[in-house]
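Quick one: structure tokens for this chain, please?
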Amino acid sequence: MGGPRVSVIMNCLNGERYLREAMDGVFAQTYTDWEIVFWDNASTDSSADIAKRYGERVRYFRSEETYPLGKARNLAIAQARGEYVALLDCDDVWLPDKLDKQVPLGDADSSIALIYSDSFFIDQDGMVIGRCFKRAPPAEDAFIGLLTRRNFIPCLTVLMRRMVVEKVGGFNPALGYAEDFDLFLRILREHKSAYVKEPLAKYRIHGGAITAAGLPNSTREGIGVIKETAKSLPALSLHNRWAIRRRLIGLWCKLIVQRLRFRGTL
């Protein structure tokens, strides 16, 4: 009782380069009823010192070894006190009205478990180079859309009901790349979502970002998540079965190209 309504989950592994900008974006929110749960995944740079300088609104925790991101996110969420949880990586940035435009959507409809928005793509210097929804527009049926199309839910924009996250079992602790995609599917299978059409955050694409690097492990995990989810569905229309198959074929082709590209370094 009396705790913050939104817990901002920040998982950090050597994120000192952009960390101040990410945290400043939270402190600049026009919606102010939040806390930051900062989970240091055994960083060896100055991330801990930076995070601790922000005062008591940042609750700092640290693991003594580096865990897969799915497990690390679960450890952070276990410390959350908010009704809602939001995810923010240390190289991304929120716009000031992000929470102000999402929290009222959840408050107005208790059946909505996940809220997301469009996001800008920025380069390592912060220059805007694109938009998420232009590349991957939202689907009317978000659950089927995630199975059949390119992922259109930017992780840095999500706001989720903590009770629902806990109900579906949280993140898969074995996943280190597709853990957010997997969780979104499990939430959306039985719950509603909503989205804000305008960009409310900036997703940074740079050499150190694991998703931007196009690693084979990321694609392989995504294929596994789609296959396991589709296998568990009792009935799918012929149209949706073929759409999922086409999506998997596309991902297998992508994986082959990635393995050829990275074969010298894997």
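Strands lie at 6-12, 34-40, 58-62, 84-87, 93-94, 112-122, 128-131, 159-161, 192-204.
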